[in-house]
Amino acid sequence: MSEKELRRSRSVFPIGTVMKLTDLSARQIRYYEEQDLIVPMRNEGNRRMYSLNNIDVLLEIKDYLSDGINMAGIKQIYKLQETKEKNREQEIIKVLTDDDVRKILHDEFLAVSGLGAKKPLSFFDQNRIG
After folding, report:
1. What is the pLDDT of residues 68-78, one digit of tens each?
2. pTM higher than 0.85, yes or no?
């Protein structure tokens, strides 16, 4: 996870601040949480703490509602997005075959033993070379 994404996912905003930023009521925000559209973290006092990513989702939900999309439609949109992300992750995993993994492991052993390359090459570096 990049540093930018790490910062955006850090839960630091209490519900009062989120209400001001999104112009939503606490009841609306909690409803979207009940619908599993956002998942705020809880602090030691069990208070909801929201991230910038949570705020982005709340603003998107607000936009979808103003465009006339109902809650079932919004859930479907997020479900499709989640499916696309999972498919993308599976495609990345499929890029590495067993032979690729064996070659990377072999090169790592050579590099560690001092018999091969000075530093291990990543999978993508290896594809550029050979």
Report:
1. 999 999 999 99
2. no
